[in-house]
Amino acid sequence: MVRTDADHPGRPAEKRDHMAVAAHIRMLLPALSQGEQAVALWLLERGNLTSGPKIGEVAEALGVSEAMVVKVSRRLGYGGFKELRAELLAYYSHLKVELDEELSQEDSISQIVRKVFATERSALEEVESILDIDAIAEASRILIKARQRDLYGVGGSATVCADASHKFLRIGIRSSVFSDAHLIAMSASLLEKGDAAIVVSHSGESKDVILGAEIARRSGAKVITITNSIASTLARNSDVVLCAPAKEAPLMGQNAAARIAQLAILDTMFICLAREDYQTAERNLNKVLSSVAVYSTADRGRTERRGTPRAEKSPPDGVSPARETAREKG
After folding, report:
1. I need a surface site. Which of 11, 161, 181, 243 has the fewest CB within 10 A?
2. What parts of the chain have a pLDDT lower than 50?
3. How far apart are CA 77 and CA 67, in angstroms?
4. Could you tell me the end-to-end alpha-carbon distance of the chain, in angstroms, rounded to an integer?
5. What is the 8-class DSSP label of residue 79?
């Protein structure tokens, strides 16, 4: 298994920028107990830290001991509460929008546009800041060498898989997408050593894809997972884990912003695959684009032959209507 932060969930990266702090905490939440999660979520709320509270004040506000606050800070990979507080304050000082007040019923259309785009930009920046480059490289290596590539996802994750498969096909990399539980299990059972499965699940707890990952690994295939948390059940049943944690926002939930990050991760892998043999990728892309262009032209021709009126065209600049008609007749 690729050694990522998943192997040391409580240890932050040696060089983490400010945008990585919140994403790192959200990524580790499922690994904490319910009481520890309550402390971590309270600390993530921007308004709770603006006054720079001391550890005693935090413990009193949460109704827990100071030892519990220190324990959570250390489980998240920090030396203590002061270090974690400083990192979170730096993170919030870099935000361009109040994420906790992102959307409300009273917002104007212009405010909605600004806030939605700001939320998704922030999600991309946070995921980029924690993305494991070695894991991306390993996932790309597995996919380029794979004999068969399956993509598993249910619900909204299925659309992410379909988008990735479409991109892969454009450069000549064939893959199959499965979103039905039975088909996922059937396909996974037929994978072999040298094959690969990409599994997308925000929660990492969807039983349909977890079963698919388990079967695929038993069959000898490598499993690449894109999920919210390294502590999820799906992550524990994978060979390579790529995390795309996202903050839940009013009305949008977590999945909306996470979906953008998942697509960006798969776009990155697509470019990495194309880079492995750029000339072949470019040649295949040209073939695909030409085939689609021919199909579209032929389809228009069939439509016209069935009697659908052709739209009137304005003559090109400098060409008289009579000369244009003559051309058409010729």
Report:
1. 11
2. 1, 3-15, 99-100, 303, 308-330
3. 15
4. 67
5. S
